[in-house]
Design brief:
This protein is α+β, with helices and mostly antiparallel strands and 420 residues long. The chain has helices at 9-17, 19-27, 36-52, 62-73, 78-81, 86-107, 160-172, 174-183, 213-232, 242-246, 255-258, 271-274, 304-335, 361-370, 374-377, 382-388, 396-404; strands at residues 5-8, 116-125, 128-141, 144-151, 191-199, 204-208, 340-342, 346-358, 406-418. The chain contains 17 helices and 9 strands. It starts with a strand and ends with a strand. The chain binds iron/sulfur cluster.
Length: 420
């Protein structure tokens, strides 16, 4: 008996984006690199699941939801989440808390119990094992359900394929039917009454009407089943495009860029290759010298994203030059014992400021997490952490540990003014 093909909306999306990418991910089983926006979205989805858990007798308070978020957030390090630095992770943490607080301010008074949350189901249908996760399912009465999907990215737009997939799942799933019938035993058929995307950063809901059956049938046959049959036939030719390749984790091993088929290790063993690092080739049919080398490709015309990237780099270089210049001016003024000096157009003044600095951010963060002090700082910056040393509500023993991580530094301040 032929095994059903494991399929989902996200797998279909990846195949549509580039079949070769799908092959790397689901045939070679090479995971993608962690992405901070997935980690952020996953923590917020967990909080929503916690809030609306139909098994709970009462909805959690804001403090309980925030504590739950902290627990979810602290399960992984900033690197595991895919953030570029501890600072960026802290900004994500603060943003997550802010979104939960705003959500409570807007919705806590009207929280209503859903039919289910984070419903993971696998439908065996037309030779597919169709996996889906419905963030929230509400019952509207008369056999009608509302499917709500949380979005946590910067923007949100209508994604017809996702809506079609949800509708197909909701109207076919025996589990959803059974859930509805527990509430309403006379219901014979489940229909989608409403589909909605809820954008957490802006607290806005986009609602969509149910699609006609003919559209769902067309989607199912010409998109889902057609994609599945191409996958079964082993059609994985790459479809490179500027947008897809720019952000693709598999560039370093992709035939489009290396000029040869990938025959390296499968699974997580290939992860170093994605980062451009060498891997042990034991157990593969590829020698270390065959590790793909980037092929010369003709530079495409600059896109808006490339222009933006160049400007960001230029800005970074100018900032570096400015910092260097500032240090040189301060050093010269100190050596000449000047506190003020004049150029032809500007005048500069040097002063000093004492600062408490925490250099080992990871240790400080671990300490704040251990004693549940992260929330107290709102956004843990050098100054908000230093303020904890004078906060009467922080136990002395904790202050002592925090103080041991602090350094006191005198900082030179250079102020510049345009001469009159
Ligand atoms: S680099 Fe481009 S062509 Fe290669 S797998 Fe990724 S998206 Fe496809």
């Amino acid at each position: 008996m032929v095994k059903n093909l494991s399929f989902s909306y996200s797998k279909m999306g990846m195949y549509k984006e580039c079949p070769q990418k799908y092959k790397f991910r689901y045939i070679h089983m090479i995971p993608e690199l962690p992405k901070y926006y997935f980690a952020f979205g996953s923590a917020l989805h967990s909080v929503m699941e916690f809030i609306y858990n139909p098994q709970r007798q009462f909805f959690p308070t804001l403090a309980e939801a925030l504590a739950y978020f902290d627990g979810e957030w602290n399960k992984t390090t900033w690197e595991q989440k895919g953030y570029a630095s501890v600072d960026k992770e802290l900004a994500g943490y603060a943003e997550g808390r802010h979104e939960i607080e705003a959500y409570y301010a807007k919705h806590a008074a009207t929280f209503a119990r859903p039919l289910s949350v984070e419903m993971r189901s696998t439908l065996e249908i037309d030779g597919l094992s169709l996996i889906s996760i419905l963030d929230r399912l509400d019952y509207l009465g008369d056999g009608l359900v509302k499917i709500l999907d949380y979005k946590t990215g910067k923007t949100v737009q209508r994604e017809p394929d996702q809506l079609y997939m949800y509708q197909k799942v909701a109207e076919t799933s025996p589990v959803i039917k059974a859930l509805v019938q527990q509430q309403d035993p006379n219901v014979k058929e489940i229909r989608v009454g409403q589909l909605a995307f809820y954008h957490l950063p802006s607290l806005t809901e986009m609602t969509f009407e149910r699609a006609p059956d003919s559209e769902i049938l067309d989607f199912w046959q010409n998109k889902v089943l057609a994609t599945a049959s191409r996958i079964r036939a082993g059609e994985f030719s790459p479809t490179p495009s500027e947008n897809a390749c720019r952000w693709c984790d598999y560039r370093n091993i992709c035939p489009v860029f290396t000029g040869r088929e990938y025959s390296g290790p499968a699974g997580a063993a290939a992860l170093p290759l994605l980062k451009g690092q060498p891997v042990s080739m034991a157990g593969t049919n590829q020698s270390a010298s065959e590790v793909p080398v980037k092929k010369q490709v003709t530079a495409p015309e600059k896109s808006a994203q490339e222009i933006l990237s160049e400007k960001i780099d230029r800005y970074g270089q100018l900032t570096q030059e400015t910092d260097k210049l500032r240090s040189e001016i301060i050093e010269l003024m100190r050596s000449q014992h000047f506190t003020r000096h004049f150029g032809t157009q500007y005048q500069a003044e040097v002063s000093q400021k004492e600062q408490t600095v925490f250099e080992d951010k990871e240790k400080v963060l671990a300490l704040l997490k251990k004693y549940n002090l992260l929330a107290k700082t709102l956004v843990p910056t050098q100054s908000t952490i230093a303020a904890l040393l004078n906060d009467p509500s922080v136990p002395d023993a904790v202050k002592k540990q925090l103080a041991a991580l602090a350094h006191h530094r005198v900082q030179d301040i250079l102020s510049l003014e345009k001469s009159e």
